[in-house]
Amino acid sequence: MSDAIADAKRALRADLRERRNLMSAAARDTAESGITAQLDALLDRFGVRSMSCFLSTTTEPGTRQFVTEAVRRGIRVLLPITRADGLLDWSVATPDLDITEGMYGLPEPVGEVLGPIAVNDVDLLVIPAAAVGQDGTRLGWGRGFFDKTIGSMERCPPVYAVIYDTELLDSVPRDVHDQPVSGVVTPTRTIDLAPARR
C-alpha cells in the first residue's frame, strides 16, 4: 500500500471514528431499529437461509437485535471470531448467545468454533465498514479480516456493509487488496452498488 493511500485511509478513519463517538444513545437506538428492519427485508429479498453477520461494537450501527431476531426466525447466522493469522473462524449464533471480548476488544460469540471455510456456504455476507464509496469500495478498520475472507471465497454471495447514512461517500481511498461490496445497509435504506472492478 502506498504511503499516500495509507495516510488518506488513516485520516478518514479517524474522522469517522470521532463522528461515531459523538452520537447520542438515542440516535444509536434509532439506528439499530432501522438496521434491523433493513436487514430483515434483505433476508426476504434474497431468500436467505444461512448468512454471516457481525456483532456490533457500541459505536457501530447496531446488529445485535437483528441477529437475535434472525436466529428466532430459523436463519443460520455465522458470527466471526478473529484469529492471529488474519483469518476468521466462525460460530453459529444461538438463542442464548454468550458474548466475550475477542482480539482488538471486538465482541465475539462463545461457542463451537468452525474454521474459515464454514462461511463458504452462506447466502449473504453482512460485514462492518467505516465507510463505503459509491462504486462499492469499502473502507474497513485496517485489519483486513473481511477483505481476506471475501477474497478467498470461490463463490462469493452478495456482500452488504452496514454503515450510518452519512458514511456512504462519493469515494474512499482504495488499494489493490480492498474487496468491493454489493451494497450498503443504513438505518434508513438499502442501496445496491456496482462493485468496482480491478
Describe what you observe in this structure.
Its cofactor is Mg(2+). This protein is of the alpha/beta class and 198 residues long. It has a 7-stranded mixed sheet with strand order 3-2-1-6-9-11-12. The protein contains 4 helices and 12 strands, in the order ααβαβββββββαββββ. Helix content is 29%, strand content 23%. The protein is globular.
What does the secondary structure layout of this molecule look like, with pairings?
Blueprint: H1 3-21, H2 25-46, E1 50-52, H3 64-72, E2 76-82, E3 88-92, E4 98-101, E5 107-110, E6 124-128, E7 131-133, E8 138-139, H4 145-152, E9 159-162, E10 168-169, E11 183-185, E12 190-192
Parallel strand pairs: 1-2, 1-6, 6-9, 7-10, 9-11
Antiparallel strand pairs: 2-3, 4-5, 7-8, 11-12
Helix pairs in contact: 2-3
EC number: 6.3.3.2
Organism: Microbacterium invictum
Cofactor: Mg(2+)
Q: Outline of this structure?
A:
The protein is of the alpha/beta class and 198 residues long. It has four helices and twelve strands; from the N terminus they run ααβαβββββββαββββ. Strand 7 and strand 8 form a beta hairpin.
